[in-house]
Amino acid sequence: MSNEKNLSVQALARKNVQELTPYQSARRLGGNGDVWLNANEYAIAPNFELTQQTFNRYPECQPARVINRYAAYAGVDPEQVLVSRGADEGIELLIRAFCEPGKDAILYCPPTYGMYSVSAETIGVEGRTVPAKADWSLDLPAIEAALDGVKLVYVCSPNNPTGNIIDPDEIRAVLEMTRGRAIVAVDEAYIEFCPQASVSGWLQEYPHLTILRTLSKAFALAGLRCGFTLANSEVIGLLMKVIAPYPISTPVADIAAQALSPEGLALMRQRVAEVTENRVWLLEELEKCACVEAVFASDTNYVLARFTASSAAFKNLWDQGIILRDQNKQPGLSGCLRITIGTREELRRVITALQALPGAAAASINEKQNSPRKEHM
Ligand SMILES: *Cc1c(COP(=O)(O)O)cnc(C)c1O
């Protein structure tokens, strides 16, 4: 009987929700690890204390101090900033504001971040893919040919999980071909690790440019759930129509403002320097591991590597409490695992575990030569 009831509830759900595969977040995947290198978090919790105690009152919809500080940090006007519950909410707000369910489409270029497709599916909007080229640059002619009905193009730069910056000339080409046709969302979740690559200075030139940012990565605040959308005020105004009335709780605004203070920014930049040093070390050590076929250059707080036997490597480390992210199912990433840059001690444990694994059979030498880019830095 309860079975029948469950079935009828299932049948009540929207069809696209019935068919939806939820995002496999690192936390959902679980595991009993003590070295968490699967969600691109910072390894050590920063210290904050609440200064606001007015919990009887509703918060400001767009807390002014947070908006002003983020605008100053990003070098844009406060009218060009929206704060939301993580960058993930920004991804969804854009679809809700610009895409008609069952009619319009979003476009993105796999291998890339998984939430673009999940948000589109949830809302009932087509997710159209134009795979990146073998060297992970954008396939511009294919994007242009696929733009019919597309209202929103997501470009992740630097890209998750590959770690490469998308050439600014390619982003510009996408902005030119979409002028008057579609919004372009450049996902800069990791931009603090390569600030020179930001396109935030282009907002004046492109009314349809939007940029997604977050406090979850370089700011070490994934648990806070705070992200930003940068765009011209016309776009921000439309997003404000669809955002919840009180998206940012009082404690979140309090801590976000502190993280964006001059001291908070200095700490962030220290973390970036430390993560970058650890990434260089990890890359060099991975290169020497027999079980590693290719290591890909990264401008982020993670590294992607191709393994001779990735499932075995993943399981072996998992059993030792070291949790990585399997990217094997993504187009073009067979045999690839993503490793978040943790503390030096955590990375030593990764390398020690990998050194114990067997190397490639002779046959894979060919594959090594054909891999997209084997680079040291
Ligand atoms: C982590 C991540 C996000 C999500 O950031 P939140 O602010 O934690 O929601 C968005 N885009 C990319 C590419 C990410 O890696």
Characterise this structure.
The protein is α/β, with parallel strands linked by helices and about 375 residues long. It has two domains: about 5-40 and about 265-365, Alpha-Beta Complex (Aspartate Aminotransferase, domain 1); about 65-260, Aspartate Aminotransferase, domain 2 (3-Layer(aba) Sandwich), CATH 3.40.640.10. About 40% of the residues lie in helices and about 15% in strands. It has 14 helices and 13 strands. α5 (about 85-100) crosses α6 and α5 crosses α9. The radius of gyration is 21 Å and the shape is globular.
Number of discrete helical segments: 14
**Overall SS class:** alpha/beta
CATH architecture title of the largest domain: 3-Layer(aba) Sandwich
Provide the succession of SSEs: HHHEHEHEHEHEHEEEHHHEEHEEEHH
Shape: globular
Write the CATH fold name of the largest domain.
Answer: Aspartate Aminotransferase, domain 2
GO molecular function, one term: histidinol-phosphate transaminase activity
EC number: 2.6.1.9
Subunit structure: Homodimer.
Keywords: Amino-acid biosynthesis, Aminotransferase, Histidine biosynthesis, Pyridoxal phosphate, Transferase
